[in-house]
Amino acid sequence: MIFELENSDYDKIPKLIENTNHELSIDAVITGNVPGKIYVDNVIEPSSTLIVTPECNVVADNANNHLFNGEIKKKLHFFDPVTCDSKEWERKIHDIHCNVAMKKYKRRYYQFDELLYDDFLEDLDEKYTLEYVYSDNLEQIQYENSKAIKDWYIFSNIHDVKDYCLGSYIRTGNKIVCWCLVDCIVGDRIEIGITTHKDFRRKGLGSICCAATVSACISNGIKEIGWHCVDSNIGSYTIAEKVGFKKIKEYSCFTPYPPIENVTDLNNEQWSEWALHYEKMNGMESVYYEQAAKCWGYANNMEKTMQNIKCLAETKPKFLNKGFLDFGGFASFQERIEWKNFIKILTTDDLESKL
Q1: Would the CATH topology of 3-101 be identical to that of 111-255?
Q2: Which stretches make up the N-acetyltransferase domain (predicted)?
């Protein structure tokens, strides 16, 4: 059986968590700072739990409750990632998730140590403006991309964080091009995340924005600042280390899709690994030809891409629309004559006979 725990009983959960206490969003849900749900096997004395936060889905404590595990499978959505609190839960991943493509990958957790980049304002070009975010000025931010900043915050009550700096952003003219914002707050502990517009990367803006947010939050009385990123996201952890974060641990998660924040987070070999993973899944469910084709595209393998698109045409022809065939991951070979001829065949009416 599975039960959704009442907020008043959330204090029963911390004792069930052993290895995922680096996820501040769990504490943020428990304290009511951000919305979330907690499911347990027993509301009086829980021994198995699924914790759903805005940042992660965590399973913890007893992994051998088969009835509870079966109910978790109904709660998790097809594309939901999962963080397992123990190796035992990792072995149960296909018992608790309906997506057979769940794949293990590595993440990093950093904590701020000391500000190593304290002269960040000196590196900000005069064409850029750095500004800070507080709850009382959030709605007054009216620039291009300001919606992305406003949508970032999922606090249960924005007025509860009125005394905190919520981050910073950099704009050029009327366009916000980089932002480093608070993900969640629990007392004097926070976690932050960062985004830079793709046209403004590799200009040092991420480091400047991160340093500005960290400096403001420390001045605001924050004692602990956390930072999570995918192990393959070199750009993210390079910024963290430059500003003054230290790696605390590496941990594993499961996802049914490539764990990237940018396409360049994975190299050709890693994209090929994901493509092969999806090809194996097609033996169980044919829905993965599309994902395999896209991954082969990012791996710059035209032949494998075409092979999977042919299979997709045979099993799920409705997916072969112009949007899919113009997918950006196929850009590296869209001018090749073999690809053009292939697309020409695909877009004819007599598709079945030509394939």
Answers
A1: yes
A2: 128-264
Give the C-alpha separation, 321 to 81, whole Å: 28
CB 110 within 8 A of CB 231: no
Q: Give all strands (DSSP E) within 17-125, no chain letters.
A: 37-40, 48-52, 57-61, 83-84, 103-112
Q: Cβ neighbours of residue 339 under 8 Å, at least 6 residues apart?
A: 302, 306, 330, 333
List pLDDT tens digits, range 79-117: 999 999 999 999 999 999 999 999 999 999 999 999 999
Domain edges within the chain: 3-101, 111-255, 266-354
Q: What's the full length of the chain, in residues? A: 355
Domain 111-255: which topology? Aminopeptidase (3.40.630)
User: What is the number of helices (H) and of strands (E) in the chain?
Assistant: 13, 12
Q: If you ran DSSP here, which 8-state letter would residue 19 be given? A: S
Domain 3-101 listed as CATH 3.40.630.30: no
Per-residue pLDDT tens over the stretch 297-337 = 999 999 999 999 998 888 877 777 778 888 999 999 999 99
Sign of CA dihedral 156, 162, 167, 169: positive
